[in-house]
Design a protein that fits this description.
Low-confidence stretches: 321-327
Distance between the termini: 40 Å
Radius of gyration: 24 Å
Order of helices and strands: HHHHHHHHHHHHH
Number of domains: 2
Mean pLDDT: 84
Helix content: over 70%
Strand content: under 5%
Number of helices: 13
Shape: elongated
Number of strands: 0
């Protein structure tokens, strides 16, 4: 690539990086870290192809400034903990909004497959859920306690066990992104088919509304977090598959950092889902309106935190770096 074309392709990004350094607004360390990785990658390319040209000297100075800013602006642990949840995770979700949409679409297609397969073959839930679970549920239905599976264990033990399982599932969905995005996509398909078959099985037993109030009481947070973890895995896999202007390793590291931050962001949501499943779902005697309100509040939180807040923060962030021209 000729030096002039290299400069033309990247000059806008370099100017944005300069603005990061010039702004009085304190940036997230990860924003600066991303800029540092991009700049050093460009510097390595320039050193290889253009020697000690003016653009190489410029990039070297820019990388040096970024390095100093990164290590000068370390935050206090408590401050970083707060901003991690209130800014860094939502902004990362905005950066991964395409992966989130893709994860959601894969999951919904899988749910549809589970629904159609169960409607077409009454034994399909046994293939997905296992004979033991299906037989146990049918026995509970015959006794008039279709949701008895949720009160079969001690509340505290159930809460801890579900929390551990949910967190492991989320990290597994993320980690399979190492096998490219197809590994994460496969787990999303498996979980989606299971959800579709599970819900349709109860509907066919004439327990649609009752099962909805029980399953989605905790499932709204739980399933949403699986989808978000899927976005983390896709970010990791896409970083490896589609490096763009970065080196493949730099792109992979960037995708890994984004994905890890997202999946850590799902941990409190999984804990809340496990608490609801362990302590609340078992209370099928509670008023339908109350249980429906919990489902709607959970759904509202998911939409706000993972979709609306990221968009709002991204708009604020953009306005800081691209202020409206003064007349």
């Amino acid at each position: 690539m000729k030096e002039a074309l290299f400069v033309k392709r990247n000059i806008d990004r370099w100017e944005q990086t300069e603005q990061l350094l010039d702004d009085d607004i304190e940036e997230s360390p990860d924003v600066l870290a991303d800029a540092y990785i991009e700049t050093t990658s460009d510097l390595a390319f320039s050193q290889t192809h253009y020697g000690r040209s003016r653009v190489t000297q410029y990039l070297n100075a820019l990388a040096f400034s970024l390095h100093n800013t990164l290590y000068r602006n370390k935050r206090e642990p408590l401050s970083r903990l707060v901003t991690f949840w209130t800014r860094e995770v939502p902004l990362t979700m905005w950066d991964a909004r395409r992966e989130l949409l893709c994860s959601l679409l894969i999951f919904l297609v899988a749910v549809f497959i589970g629904v159609v397969s169960t409607l077409g073959d009454a034994d399909f839930p046994r293939i997905i859920l296992g004979d033991q679970y299906v037989d146990m549920t049918l026995e509970n239905i015959a006794r008039g306690e279709p949701m008895a599976v949720y009160d079969s264990d001690n509340e505290s033990e159930m809460f801890l066990g579900i929390t551990l399982n949910n967190v492991l599932v989320s990290f597994r969905v993320f980690a399979l992104g190492v096998l490219t995005s197809f590994g994460t996509g496969y787990l999303l398909l498996v979980n989606g088919v299971m959800v579709g078959a599970f819900q349709t099985f109860f509907i066919e037993q004439g327990l649609g509304w009752q099962s909805f109030l029980a399953i989605w009481l905790h499932g709204t947070l739980e399933i949403s977090s699986v989808i978000v973890a899927g976005a983390a895995g896709l970010a990791l896999g896409n970083g490896w598959l589609f490096p763009g202007s970065y080196s493949r390793m730099a792109s992979f590291r960037r995708g890994a950092r984004r994905g890890l931050k997202i999946v850590i962001g799902t941990v409190p949501v999984f804990v809340c889902a496990a608490f609801i499943e362990g302590f609340i779902t078992r209370h099928t005697e509670w008023p339908d309106a109350l249980r429906l309100a919990i489902i709607l509040l959970s759904f509202g939180f998911v939409v706000y935190y993972f979709v609306l807040l990221p968009r709002s923060l991204a708009a604020q962030h953009q306005s800081h770096h691209n202020p409206a021209p003064q007349e």
